[in-house]
Amino acid sequence: MSLIVQKYGGTSVGDVERIKNVAQRVLATRDEGNQVVVVVSAMAGATDHLIGLARQISTVPDAREMDMLLASGEQVSVALLAMALHELGCTAVSMTGPQAGIFTDASHTRARISRIATERVMDRLGNGHVVIIAGFQGRSETDEITTLGRGGSDTSAVAIAAALKADCCEIYTDVDGVYTADPRLVPEARKLNAISHDEMLELASLGAKVLQSRAVEFAKKYSVPLVVRSSFNTAPGTWIVKETDQMEDVVVRGVSLDKNQAKITFLHVPDRPGVAATIFKHLADQTINVDMIVQNISEQGKTDVSFTVPADDLERSLRVSREIAGLVGAADVSANSDIAKLSAVGVGMRTHTGIAAKMFGILSEAQVNIAMISTSEIKISCVIPKHQADQALRLVHNGFGLGAGENPAAEN
Amino acid sequence: MSLIVQKYGGTSVGDVERIKNVAQRVLATRDEGNQVVVVVSAMAGATDHLIGLARQISTVPDAREMDMLLASGEQVSVALLAMALHELGCTAVSMTGPQAGIFTDASHTRARISRIATERVMDRLGNGHVVIIAGFQGRSETDEITTLGRGGSDTSAVAIAAALKADCCEIYTDVDGVYTADPRLVPEARKLNAISHDEMLELASLGAKVLQSRAVEFAKKYSVPLVVRSSFNTAPGTWIVKETDQMEDVVVRGVSLDKNQAKITFLHVPDRPGVAATIFKHLADQTINVDMIVQNISEQGKTDVSFTVPADDLERSLRVSREIAGLVGAADVSANSDIAKLSAVGVGMRTHTGIAAKMFGILSEAQVNIAMISTSEIKISCVIPKHQADQALRLVHNGFGLGAGENPAAEN
After folding, report:
1. Closest CA in chain B for residue A99
2. Cα–Cα distances in Å, from A44 out to A8, A73, A225?
3. C-beta atoms of A73 and B73 within 8 A
4. Contact B49/B129 with Cβ under 8 angstroms?
5. Most buried one in A35, A41, B2, B110, CB count within 10 A?
6. What is the DSSP letter of A298?
7. Best residue in A48, A65, A137 to probe B by mutation, most B CBs within 10 Å?
8. Looking at A282-385, which runs of residues are DSSP E strands?
């Protein structure tokens, strides 16, 4: 008998019919002789509706009260799923995050799980129940309701799987799994059978929103076997696994594109120590989330400093940057929102050379100008003009042999 | 400094604007130098929406899961009200029923409050917070979420007021207070300044849905000063008070009408011991809620037994009754849904005689036929034809001097 943790996202429980479908799926898993714990998000739209109500009352609602408010969403979906299982003759019980013993720190709206008291869940599992747990939420040591931040249900599921020493954690979502690229942009993109934790982390942080990064980190840390599958079909999905030697045979696992970026440049900044520190300290003080940073070479004691920010933050970032420009003696500040970040990810880059050169070559051949470059051990990112981004993504994807019939790591 | 518990119903917090109005009211009460605890229902419509979802999944949803589901409703309204108070610069904190220490028995969907652990609420009050508590809900001793049944927020408020030894409990609703009769039916009806607990209990059970009966019982038992007021104006409302000698000067405090009744009659039942017991035991076994019962005098060893049931239950009751008719040897079973129950209530009946006769006289003069009669110490109820009910209500109301300019207990 295996113990399986299944997590269903908001779209998968978006209406009564879908909740009934999830119940069928959960029952089928149990009928195969498994113990099942189900982690559920709020019904699609519910959280946005609640946030909308809060915003009508307060522009900056209190974090503790936001947690109180938002945690109601999963309480609805877990209860409805329990009822749907009862209708199928399956013993099942729902629990809020606090009831399930999910303890967190006290950082409201972005709490981190500190420990999980599994007695109550184990007790019910032992009595033959399917246990349905509200994702995204927990309780602090002082019995306050906390939430883990958007997408936190993935983290809940993996953490619960780790605490229960589950045999695997299945994340059900509205996509089939992880692809070599976004199939809406790259028709040749193929679903991966497996991807390493680090590759998944790079892709998640690059905007492939299949899995929350913290969930992947948890799975890596506690060696939780993790699979991403569609809740609308029975395709096998993508396993997120420990890195193996064979994985390095494939240099690029996938490519991703983030169009929600904008670039700000400080022009002709005096090139002396402390300038960059001043700029980015002030930006951080204003909680502006800076991604890539590039400083060009100095000419006549002056240099240009460029960085990217989320496009939604451009206006605010620009306002703050103009203030900073005075402090550091920059001649001017310019902005460009016609950019996109194109990235290639693969653990094979660790052992293979020339990957960056190959990527630059593909872009150059297509007359795509690279504005910024950033690399990690297993990733290369290039900032390019947004209007060329879709074409460039497809060229790089196919250039690295990720298309149909060429990719040994993908399904045939 | 007084400690005041205020309760706002679903209509009073039905949308964002109304929540803001409630916040203003709460703040005004605090600014007068009081400590304030606020008990809130779910936003109007929220509970019905949740029940609708559950019904789409299950015709008889599990009671525990219903509680899990429905308790989410107040969690939303308390959080939003806390945010609205923060916007006004007022320190405030929301609590679920479980967080506020409201312990109940384990009877899901109709739990009874067993004890209230007040430490957390008192602590926050002591720190200068307005404490906002989710009504209608509590927790069992095994940390399950329970609810008190529809309208249970009134009971929550009074129980919390009793536990905190509050100076008074104010129930805010969408009516101005308790009237001598339903003003929609009787234009001469007047608002009462005060009414005794027992009178209020009789009126509540007779369909004047201003206050939940259990809340009134609680207020009586623990001597909680209780007032019903409108949340939409500043009129003083109606106090529900301990009975005083002067109250008996008014023989009839108010009249009420219940049109949601139907009558079933067992015809020509053998008049022997055990027949009534058999009939009403079988009805009770089917959880049919029987109200008035009348057995006519025996003729030739046969009698007729009539009783009333809620009109919504008529069809089912009739089906069950036909089965019972065979068991007890009744000739036939008849039904009549053209009935209404007209009642007059007043503690003065204890000391005054001839009240029943006067009521029958008023009805007789108006050619209203009385089908059934039932009396208690402080109440007379008559079942009359529904099509004459509105007219009869007004005649009885005015006949007992409850109209304008005539009633010393009502406002001028």
Report:
1. B143
2. 11, 10, 27
3. no
4. no
5. A41
6. P
7. A65
8. 293-295, 302-310, 332-345, 372-376, 379-385
Residue B38's H or E segment, with its range, is strand B35-40
Under 8 Å between Cβ of B180 and B253: yes
Tokens at B86, concatenated: 């923060």
* A170 three-state secondary structure: strand
Residue A225's region, left for phi above 0, alpha for psi from -120 to 50, else beta, is beta
Compare CB distances from A80 to B69, B71, B143 and report the shortest one's residue.
B69
Q: Coil, strand or helix: which one is A238?
A: strand
Of B79, B99, B143, the CB nearest to A69: B79
ipTM for the complex shown? 0.83
**A93 to chain B, closest Cα gap in Å:** 8
Show the domains of chain B with their CATH numbers: 3-174 (3.40.1160.10), 255-399 (3.30.2130.10)
Cβ contact A86–B64 (<8 Å)? no
CA distances from A315 to A45, A381, B240, B305 (A): 28, 24, 59, 81
Q: Do B62 and A86 touch (CB under 8 A)?
A: yes
Out of B20, B56, B76, whose CB is closest to A69? B76
User: A54-81 pLDDT, tens per residue?
Assistant: 999 999 999 999 999 999 999 999 999 9
How does residue A207 score in pLDDT terms, banded at 50, 70 and 90? low
CA A71 to chain centre: 20
Strands A302-310 and A293-295 come out as antiparallel
Say if A87 is an interface residue toward chain B (CB within 8 Å). yes
> Model's pTM, two decimal places?
0.84
Query: Which of B74, B80, B94 would best serve as a mutation to test chain A binding (most A beta carbons within 10 A)?
Result: B80
Helix (H) and strand (E) counts in chain A:
11, 18
Pick from A67, A75, A90 the residue to mutate for testing the B interface (most B CBs within 10 Å): A75
A199 near A346, Cβ under 8 Å? yes
Residue B184: which residues within 8 A CB-CB, separation 6 or more? none
Q: Is the pLDDT of residue B72 over 80?
A: yes
**Per-residue tokens: B312:** 């919504």
Give the closest residue to B78 by CA, choosing from B89, B67, B94, B97: B94
Environment class of residue B227 by beta-carbon count within 10 Å: exposed (0-12), middle (13-18) or buried (19+)? middle
* Tokens standing for residue A39: 């982690």
Residue to test with chain A: of B13, B22, B48, B57, most A Cβ within 10 A: B57
Give the separation between CA A83 and CA B41, rounded to whole angstroms.
24
As given in the structure block, the two tokens for residue B114 are 């067993």
Contact present, A242 and A284 (Cβ < 8 Å): no
The pLDDT of residue B411: 46
Residue of A nearest to B86 (CA): A62
What residue in B sits closest to A101 (Cα-Cα)? B143
CB interface of B with A, residues 48-67, below 8 Å: 50, 53-54, 56-58, 61-62, 64-66
The helix or strand, by DSSP H or E, that contains position A220, with its residue range, turns out to be helix A213-221
**Pairwise CB contact (< 8 Å): B16 & A72:** no
Q: Where are the beta strands (DSSP E) in B205-348?
A: 226-230, 238-241, 254-270, 293-295, 302-310, 332-345
Instruction: Please answer yes or no on whether A62 and B145 come within 8 Å at the CB atom.
Output: no
Q: How many helices (H) and strands (E) does chain B have?
A: 11, 18
Predicted confidence (pLDDT) per residue in B170-194, tens digit: 999 888 899 999 888 999 999 999 9
Q: Using the beta-carbon criterion (under 8 Å), do A72 and B69 form an inter-chain contact?
A: no
pLDDT one-digit tens code per residue, A233-277: 888 999 999 988 888 888 899 999 999 999 999 999 988 888 888
**One-letter identity of residue B368:** V
Count of CB atoms within 10 A of residue A250's CB?
23
A107 in contact with B, Cβ within 8 Å: no
